[in-house]
């Protein structure tokens, strides 16, 4: 199967679906790791400048389901797990760029860390800026320093989590349900940030697979 991926790259739905196995957990895990390794290798080795574009925008055309079937069950500290989380972060941003931008801006106001700088978003960052940032981070996985891209994504999640937590505090009295939703989001983003940061360290150590 891997040999097929040395041919010229055309990333449509079939390339991901080709790895979809049955329900055998071992087969699913093998497919997840193999597909992640091969896709990264092809993107970095490709002469076609449109290959990375197709990977970045894959879910815009095909949805998230094919990637979910391949990678969603992968451990958080694995290569397919890291790719899956980056695609999910991008999807989160594209589904609500205005809301994400507001929370990111609040996060930059309440955090005293350099996470906003590491993430690479301009200040202020509106819906267009955070959408473009998501694409740049994902693109960095395929054609830049993999660990740096993971660190940028982790930093973005930390800023977003701080913003969600701060707004949740504001909403606690007037809208407790909204506050609870934002608190849950903040916890999930914090967890994702920790997972991506761990993957970045593993990538630098050469142990991320």
Automatic annotation (TrEMBL):
GO terms for cellular component: DNA-directed RNA polymerase complex. It comes from the Bacteria. This is DNA-directed RNA polymerase subunit beta. Keywords: DNA-directed RNA polymerase, Transcription.
